[in-house]
Amino acid sequence: MVRSSISIARQAVGDVAEAMLILTVAAATIVALSLAVSGTPAGANSVFAAKGGNGHGGGNLTTSAGCIIDTRTVTASGLPTDEVINFFVSDANGKTGWVLGFTDDGTWAEPVPVRTGPTTYEFASRTWGPMGSHYTVFASCYAE
């Protein structure tokens, strides 16, 4: 009886993990397809950011990649293709971030909400250190 309960529990855990993987792949596919068919609206104002330098001091490091902000999309180029990309947004409400994934060609276009004030966007590496407080910034954009 105990052995069969353990087997059932293991199967349930495996089923949940498989379902989560399927949902993750489906969500990534939907995002990729929506980005492939979307374009920059005619007349949209863009804010261009200069490429960052290599940081060697305290805090987070910055590498050299380009970044463009449109009204509802932040696009980066020159991103690494061999590591996971995270995305961070900093504004008057604080800082938030999420995992984007990998890029095959070194570019990524991320949809963002309309800004309500000065906002910084960062395409970054995986985090490390206390509470994930350290990371390498691949591309950073700022808009008011």
Any overview of this molecule?
With 144 residues, this protein is α+β, with helices and mostly antiparallel strands. The chain folds into two domains: 1-37; 47-143, Immunoglobulin-like (Sandwich). The longest helix has 36 residues, at 2-37. The protein is globular. The N and C termini lie far apart (64 Å). The strands form two sheets. Strands 2-9-8-5-6 form a five-stranded mixed beta sheet, with no helix packed on it. It is built from one helix and nine strands; from the N terminus they run H-E-E-E-E-E-E-E-E-E.
Q: What's this model, at a glance?
A:
The protein is of the alpha+beta class. 25% of the residues lie in helices and 33% in strands.
Rough outline = globular
- Estimate the helix proportion, in percent: 25-40%
Gyration radius, to the nearest Å?
19 Å
Count of separate DSSP helical elements? 1
Class by SSE composition: alpha+beta
Number of strands: 9
Reading the helices and strands in chain order gives HEEEEEEEEE
CATH class of the largest domain: Mainly Beta
Question: What topology, given as strand order, has the largest sheet?
Answer: 2-9-8-5-6
CATH second-level architecture of the largest domain: Sandwich
User: Based on the structure, what is the oligomeric state of the protein chains?
Assistant: single chain
* Uncertain ranges: 19-62
Cα(first) to Cα(last) distance is 64 Å
CATH fold-level topology of the largest domain: Immunoglobulin-like
